[in-house]
Amino acid sequence: MEETREEGASSVLRVPADSSLVGPAHDVEGVTVVEVGPTGARALAPLVTATVDGRTAFATNADTETVRALAEGLADGDLPDDADALVDHEESRETLPTPEKGPLSVGRRRVLGPCGWVAPDDVDAVGGLTRGDPRETVRDTGLLGRGRGDGAPDRRIADEWDRATDADGDSVVVVNANEADHRVEGDRLLLESAPLTVLDGALLVARAVEATDVVVYLNEDDDVARTRVESAVAALADSDERVDGEHSVVAGPDRYIAGEMTMALEAMEGADRIEARLRPPYPSEHGLYGRPTVVHTPRTLAQVRSCVRDPEAFGSHSESDDPGTRLVSVGGDVAHRTTVELPTGASLARVRDAVDVEGRFKMACVGGQFGGFARSLDVPASAPALLAADLGTAGVVELFDTDQCAVATAGKRARFARDENCGRCVPCREGTKQLLDLLRDVYDGSYEADMLRELTRTMATTSTCAFGADATRPVTTAMDDFETEFRAHAEGRCPSGTCEF
Predict the structure, then answer these.
(1) Residue 373 and residue 445 in one domain
(2) Region labeled Disordered — which residues (predicted)?
């Protein structure tokens, strides 16, 4: 990725990499141009920022003429008076300064800080690699894993590291970034905008478990993320930072199941049929090619880095049952999807300030493909709070208006579960079929609530992996909060007016 720099230059123009704006940005001499990744705020894209001596102007939905005007002004040391936002900040800032209004103002941009501000392959811009032994720091903070593909989802990751350290064999660290649920944008955003922070976190984990190799496992369709990661790996190799061991990037199929921890290992080993592995043994004991394997998502690794670099600001388990922040991608019936970063103690309702909801709000689905439905988002963003409310922790909030039918939406997700499960265990393979049949019966006039709840309880407690357990959540939560809609459908009418009988 090309970047034009002038030693000591104080005027910087930041433009989205690989966009039509890059050429015009380079047309004006005397301006430092930094090609950056996305910020996560799609409503503002393409976003261009211009910085002069600790003051940054934001130009949203920029075009080539806007870029040329900004560059010409920067050449004279000027910023436009009519910018969409102007923010004063310290000159040496390493993270994106945030305006007081708009989607970038929601939450706290800690791990998202470099996104849209530094070049994805600039090692110095992110402060280089993090030194020291992370084990005690991470243990003391009580950091929990983030995302369904993590080896310790919503559990303390230090325990997973201990298991790998105690196991026989050479350990390996897997960065599991194969997320086929495209509602979940946090991992992809980090790899496209700040891959070096993820790699830094992976190297910290490798140091903690004495791993010799790091493997980044991507979705085969995520071409941009793959290019950025490969550039970041090459930048580390060319820098003064010492990186030990082998570091490889591999791609897996664009299938939802391929992101599950053990099925990710199956895909990386080239299995013809991807199925969940029985546990124990856990991957941290017997994982990739039989080696002790620590699996973390990019979101978890970015949190590891943030924790080790500034443990006091990060917090600890004595202060929170889920220290740090959580990335939340907001979608559904909104004009533009947005990814925000919330402190875990903040209310999840704050995500509504980051988007424009189309129509009148009816309900939310929290947790992605197999998230939970709720009428209110008045719940903390922490994993324990979300799980207590029977909501998912995959890092997604979908906002739906009154045109959406709770029964039909839950039914679509049940159909997905029936069609996409790996087929290994009976509770999931057969349970998802029965689940969909019982939901179809509702439209035929038979709402068997007790049978539905007993089936979902059995699936949740006996399935081999989280797929079967989580697949029940959309149905059970829809029944909890929208019981009257199920009964109305059994009577032959849809309160939302969207279903046909």
Answers:
(1) no
(2) 128-151
**Total tally of structural domains belonging to the chain:** 4
Contact 257, 420 (CB under 8 A): yes
Q: Are residues 432 and 360 in the same domain?
A: no
Q: What tokens appear for 126 in the block? A: 């992110």
Per-residue pLDDT band at 318 (split at 50, 70, 90): low
For 44-63, the pLDDT digits (tens) are 999 999 999 999 999 999 99
Pairing relationship of beta strands 338-343 and 325-332 according to DSSP bridges? antiparallel
Report whether 391 contacts 367 (CB < 8 A): yes
Do 143 and 219 belong together in one domain? Answer: yes
Please, which pLDDT band fits residue 337 given cuts at 50, 70 and 90?
very high
What is the CATH classification number for the domain harbouring 166? 3.40.50.11540
Residue indicated by tokens 């303390």:
156
Same domain, 265 and 149: yes
119 in any annotated domain: no
Identify which of 19, 116, 28 has the alpha carbon closest to the alpha carbon of residue 70: 28
Residues 154 and 195 both lie in one domain: yes
C-alpha distance from residue 255 to each of 150, 176, 363 (Å): 16, 13, 27
Domain annotation covers residue 111: no
Range of the domain at 60: 11-105
What's the confidence (pLDDT) of residue 3?
42
Mean pLDDT of 2-27: 76
Q: Are 404 and 359 in contact (CB under 8 A)?
A: no
Q: Which of 371, 401, 431 is the last residue of a domain?
A: 401
Between the alpha carbon of residue 345 and those of residues 131, 143, 461, 495, the distances in Å are 29, 14, 29, 35
One domain, residues 191 and 222: yes
Regarding whether 450 and 425 lie in a shared domain, the answer is yes
Does some domain include residue 446?
Answer: yes
pLDDT at 5: 38
Same domain, 40 and 142: no
The answer for residues whose C-beta is within 8 angstroms of residue 37's C-beta and 6 or more apart is 16, 17, 115, 116, 120, 189, 192, 193, 194, 228
Widest CA span in the chain? 74
- Are the CB atoms for 382 and 345 separated by under 8 Å? yes
Q: Which strand (E) or helix (H) includes residue 418?
A: helix 406-420
Tens of pLDDT along 440-494?
A: 999 999 999 999 999 999 999 999 999 999 999 999 999 999 999 999 999 999 9
For every residue of 40-101, which 3-state class applies, written as one string? CEHHHCCCEEEEECCEEEEECCCCHHHHHHHHHHHHCCCCCCCCCEEEECCCCCCCCCCCCC
SS (H, E, C) 298-324: HHHHHHHHHHHHCHHHHCCCCCCCCCC
DSSP label at residue 288: G
